[in-house]
Design goal:
Elements (H helix, E strand, L loop, with lengths): L12 E6 L14 H15 L4 E6 L7 H6 L4 H25 L4 E5 L8 E2 L2 H9 L3 E5 L9 H11 L4 E6 L4 E2 L11 E2 L1 E3 H6 L7 H9 L4 E5 L5 H6 L6 E4 L1
Parallel strand pairs: 1-2, 1-6, 2-5, 3-4, 3-5, 6-10, 9-11
Antiparallel strand pairs: 7-8, 10-11
Helix pairs in contact: 1-3, 5-7
Length: 243
């Protein structure tokens, strides 16, 4: 256990969803260890606040199922390959977190007992109660579902109070702020508006699942040092997607 005193925060249990590309750093492919370590420090700072943390990491830095199927590969096979990529990213994050002294469990929807635990909901909940970070890998274990949907599913199963979606920008905009100087950022926006306006927050099935279960999504910049812990302390810039 850490000697750092716990800080008062709004949330007791949260889901952190990040893309596989977030682990690439400035590289065009794969894992960038200093970037993985930086994100692990962000997670540790929130863990030290007494918050129970679930994580889902995409696999796009290694293999993206949709791209594989677009190039002629059978979609189901491509999606399973993408699930395996998420396991690799989860193991890398586990190594970085445990190097910082944060006890972590990788829990896979596809059984692979030699490297991680199978998904058993009650066991995962117990890990969280024991203040271990749980990284859910291999998506939902089914093709045709994204890691966004997996994150929303696991967040509901784990009774998380919010999903924190770490991105390259500090919230949800009406258009790409990197391409359009007049892009407008939303402080708050409804699930229905996200779906109607086709805003790239999460895929439609993830947004609908969050909406149906009244699970808010907090979109923030993962590149902002201290951004994750800052929002939990009531600071920083972000967009809240909710009912």
């Amino acid at each position: 256990m850490s000697d750092v005193p716990e800080t008062r925060t709004t949330y007791k249990r949260v889901m952190l969803k990040i893309s596989g590309e977030a682990l690439m750093g400035d590289q065009g492919y794969g894992l960038h260890p200093p970037t993985v370590a930086r994100i692990a420090h962000e997670v540790k700072s929130v863990h030290e606040m007494g918050v129970e943390i679930c994580m889902v990491i995409g696999g796009g830095n290694i293999f993206r199922g949709l791209q594989g199927s677009a190039q002629g590969m059978e979609r189901t096979t491509a999606d399973y390959m993408g699930m395996l990529a998420t396991v690799m990213n989860a193991l890398a994050m586990q190594a970085a977190l445990e190097d910082l002294g944060v006890f972590t469990r990788v829990i896979s929807a596809i059984p692979m007992d030699q490297v991680c635990e199978p998904y058993i909901r009650r066991r995962a909940v117990r890990h969280l109660e024991k203040k271990r970070v749980c990284i859910f890998a291999a998506g939902t274990g089914n093709p045709y579902f994204t890691t966004d949907t997996a994150a929303t599913l696991r967040a509901n199963e784990m009774a998380c109070e919010a999903i924190f979606k770490g991105t390259k920008v500090d919230g949800v905009y009406d258009k790409d702020p990197k391409k359009h100087a007049d892009a407008r950022r939303f402080d708050t926006i409804s699930f229905d508006d996200v779906l109607v306006k086709h805003l790239q927050v999460m895929d439609a099935s993830a947004i609908a699942l969050a909406r149906d279960n009244h699970l808010p999504i907090i979109v923030f910049s993962l590149d902002e040092p201290g951004g994750f812990s800052g929002i939990l302390r009531g600071e920083g810039t972000y967009t809240r997607v909710s009912d």
